[in-house]
Amino acid sequence: MSIKSLAKDTAVYGLSSIVGRFLNWCLVPLYVYLFPTEEYGIVTYLYGVTAVMLVILNYGMETGFFRFANKEEDPEKVYTTTLISVGTTSLIFLILLTVFLHPVSDGLKLPNQSLFVWLIGATVAVDAFSNLPFAYLRYKNRSWRFAGLKLINVGLNIGLNLFFLLLCPAINEYNPGLISWFYAPAGGESFGIGWIFVANILSSYIILLMLMPQLMGRKWRFSGELLKRILSYSWPLLILAIAGMLSQNMGQLLIPYLISDEEAARSMIGIYGANMKIAIVMVMFTQAFRYAYEPFIFSQARKSGETSAQMYADAMKYFIIFGWLIFLGVMFYLPFVKYFISPAYWEGLQVVPVMMMAEICFGVFFNLSLWYKLTDRTRWGMYLSLMCFGIMLGLNIWLVPFIGIPNGYMGAAWGALAAYFIVMVISYFLGRHYYPLPYEIKRITGYTLLAGVLFAIGTMITPFLPDWIVYIVRTVLILLYIGVIASFEPIPFLSSHIRRYTSKLNLIM
Question: Which of 96, 156, 167, 445 could be stapled to 203 by a disulfide with Cβ–Cβ 3.0 to 4.6 Å?
Fold first, then answer.
């Protein structure tokens, strides 16, 4: 797999991630229009819990599968062993959740929403199992099928949301007999945000059925000895992933415990979550890169020499280049982008630049993770993630109550940026010791400073120029960024034209 192949797969995975998240993003205006901030806060809160539980139920098996499928002589046995393991633990989780549903709901500070908690838990159980067939598609480089199924999942979720939240109330008003068999017993329109979770669970189970070709028609084998070795490799990654996911969702998970006013806390979570949807463009890019990068680094690990090392370094450089391009694009056109959420949520727009920078730092941190994954020092990943979690937890506990109502969520945002930046720097220096790579630090720093200067210029001109001139200038600044990059990097089509133009100028002068 080459850098071009990595870029292609990132683009394909990005298609499913970006288009899918964008379509889900379009549901946000629907939610904030139908439900008050405190109810949307429950949705955001439970989605944060879902992300953490999904990591726990996968317990590093995806990365373990990639590592051992590329290492063992029989990748199929690796696949079926991990499937049986994750399937068993997911089933046990669902049984325990059903038995202890009310204590769990009380612990989540949602004593009156036990059904919502169960629906989310059942969805997590099937999604955890489904992640391995999706990982198998990535292992086989079947990026188009992966992307297609992900988009179908999104389409189903959106269609079911529209059906339950918009169409069913209309049908119930004019011809209730058509849907009375399920709509009225569930509570009808008063079931409210519960229909969001029903849509989630239905779409997840349908996708599991569509993944049957990756589950059926194979010889199922389980090796306890192999599982033991996979777990030995993966358990530090589990701690890493749990700490990482807790860090990513720290704000929405902690605010209910840090702000005593329950309604205000849920409202803050709703505002924070809605504005995070704007910063999600960076999250989508990071996620698409991650989907393509893990198979890439382990396939390259079979090779040796300067070529692989240079590819790892190039991947880092291009991640940062495109990360800052996305940052400038979103921030320069934020006055237009903000209309995707209700004006009632605009007070939280200050979250967007902070969280986008935090996501860039997180993406670089993930990129740097190859040094401990390829040297089988996964414990270092655990240490770094625990460090990140500890820093972020401390900053949240301090900053969220300190800033208080109504902008306490900014404490969560600044805590995320500080924690990701610190562990990113520490990971870089550790990587230089254990697995040194030829990262072009001076050039990367130059591109980062360039993006920072352009962002400062695009922001400072706002009070002095009419809006239409501001957007023209900002567009020129983005083109300037692209032009500078293309002058130094081999960007297809652009670089050759810019260098030809530059050489002509030099001749004239």
Answer: 156
Most confident of 62-71, 226-235, 407-416: 407-416
C-alpha 71 chain-centroid distance: 28
DSSP 1: -
**Longest Cα separation, the chain:** 81
Taking the C-alpha atoms of residue 45 and residue 480, their distance in angstroms, rounded to an integer, is 40
Task: Quote the CA–CA distance of 275 and 334 in Å, as a whole number.
Answer: 11
Q: Kindly give the residue spans of alpha helices, DSSP state H, lying in 404-493.
A: 409-434, 441-460, 467-488
Neighbours of 492 (CB within 10 A): 9
Q: How far apart are CA 495 and CA 501, in angstroms?
A: 10
Rounded Cα gap, residues 47 and 256, in angstroms: 14
Mean of pLDDT over the chain: 81
Do 369 and 426 form a contact (C-beta atoms < 8 A)? Answer: no
pLDDT at site 34: 81
Share of the chain above pLDDT 90, in %: 23
- Smallest CA-to-CA distance from 239 within 41, 420, 387 is with 387
Tokens of 209: 């059925």
Quote the crossing angle between the two packed helices 262-300 and 37-58, to the nearest 10°.
30
Q: Of 448, 283, 299, 294, which Cα lies nearest the Cα of 355?
A: 283
Backbone dihedral angles phi then psi of residue 248, each to the nearest 5 degrees? -65, -30
